[in-house]
Amino acid sequence: MFKARSVLVTGSNRGIGLEFVKQLIQLPNPPEHVFACCRSPENAVELKNLVSENPSLKVIKLELEDYTSIEEAGKQVEQVVGENGLNVLINNAGYFGVSEMNEKLEDVTPESLTKHFNINAIGPLMVTKRLLPLIRCAAQQGVGDEMSASRAAIINITTKCASIADNGSARMYGYRTSKIALNMINKNLAVELKPDNILCVLMHPGWMKTDMTGPNALITTEESVRPMLDVIGSRRREHNGLLFDYKGNLIPW
Amino acid sequence: MFKARSVLVTGSNRGIGLEFVKQLIQLPNPPEHVFACCRSPENAVELKNLVSENPSLKVIKLELEDYTSIEEAGKQVEQVVGENGLNVLINNAGYFGVSEMNEKLEDVTPESLTKHFNINAIGPLMVTKRLLPLIRCAAQQGVGDEMSASRAAIINITTKCASIADNGSARMYGYRTSKIALNMINKNLAVELKPDNILCVLMHPGWMKTDMTGPNALITTEESVRPMLDVIGSRRREHNGLLFDYKGNLIPW
Questions:
Q1: What is the pLDDT of residues A120-147, one digit of tens each?
Q2: B129 and A106 in contact by Cβ < 8 A?
Q3: ipTM of the predicted structure?
């Protein structure tokens, strides 16, 4: 069961991010604070509707390529959580260049590689860097060396496409390289923040029916996020640094 | 034993790259053409001296962040190898931000991440893209489905630091993320170019005493490159897409 006092979700205006927010506020013991970050709060109609019925929900502007917006978002979260800090950061926002789905070596461009890397690797890392003091603050209120989302956790949403071992179909150079960079970032964080008892876990949400994917997708966002929240809630010290699918199965590097 | 008609090495003005060139031209059966690529041929004193005694050696300007130079280098190689194509491309040039050696999350900058990614991931991929027609040309002259450096191979020089499984000390965000991106690129190439019988292999050269490393290095460039050439020369179809150290040991992802 997922239980945390405060949770921040990036890319929460649609797809998995929106579903995370919906399910978090509907939990039997919902978080006191859910921060729904997105690029254009003014256009996030569904989030706006949710806010009107849920005072625990706060919509915040955050754009992964705009570091000023990351700084500003950090300040807003700080003001709300105060000394309790932030328990869970879900780095969900990402980019997938649909037109690169079938790209071969001849089609690869530096522009596509750069855009994917900026959004999928540098972005989440900069968000994590900004929020680290708040996450540390939450971690310090836990007991002993326990590690869990109830204390402090950084959840990085990645993809099975970023498994070298699993890669049997090539293509998607930008998506694969940027997401495997995120996997390495998660491992770095897991090692570096272990003394702080901050759990760092990678999640593959499954092939979902979102704006990003096509008709080949297998599950709905609801079918992905429901088990994923349980998996995140049940991760402990022994899972730190690893990659799981939404059902809790370990995915090889 | 390493044997190939033509070999191109990037970053060959010093360190491992220079050592590759030296040992290639000293082989009992040296390549007909060795292309030593570097950013500033005019300043590459050691390469210049080698050229004067070795007509098989050609020094070519190539800068990983300058795509015009990659295009120009491709044209020069084309003119020399003609219809025989290029047998072996060794993507050796790379970047390691020494000042990031001990960087923690608080120290990470987008600039460092970008520079590492540009040079260590995008650069080698753009070089490979430009030279692919020449490598394909060499591959087409082989027999059946054999795969080896004697036919056609892309060798990507990476690092054990880019192994998530092996990462127990964190730090070096830019170096680790860019080199693991290169590992994914190699796997993509291995899958994509398998029907062309082009071998794609990653090599970890060991901790060498070069300008890039410090006094903790374990071996000289000569002690790295000598066994590495043998390992490259003995890689076959079953090794395609994998990562080996300079002694031929498999490194996990």
A1: 999 999 999 999 999 999 999 999 999 9
A2: yes
A3: 0.96
Question: Superfamily for A6-245?
Answer: NAD(P)-binding Rossmann-like Domain (3.40.50.720)
Of A239, A93, A83, A237, which Cα lies nearest the Cα of A158?
A93
Q: For residue B108, which phi and psi values (nearest 5 degrees)?
A: -65, 135
| Cα radius of gyration (chain A) | 17
Query: Distance between CA atoms of A85 and A78, rounded to whole angstroms?
Result: 7
Residues in CB range of A46: below 8 A, 6 or more apart: A13, A14, A18
Q: Which residue of A has its CA nearest to B110?
A: A122
> Residue B146: left (phi > 0), alpha (psi -120 to 50), or beta?
beta
Averaged pLDDT for residues B57-86? 98
Give DSSP secondary structure letters for A213-225.
S-TT--B-HHHHH
Q: How far are the Cα atoms of A148, A152, A157, B26 from residue A87, in angstroms, in the given order?
A: 9, 4, 17, 61
Q: How do the domains of chain A map onto residue ranges?
A: 6-245
Question: Is residue B147's pLDDT more than 80?
Answer: yes
- Please give the angle made by the CA atoms of A193, A199 and A201, to the nearest 5 degrees: 110
Is the distance from CB of B201 to CB of B242 less than 8 angstroms? yes
Q: Do B167 and A173 touch (CB under 8 A)?
A: no
Q: Which residues pair with A204 in a beta bridge?
A: A245
Residue A95 at interface with chain B, using a CB cutoff of 8 Å: no
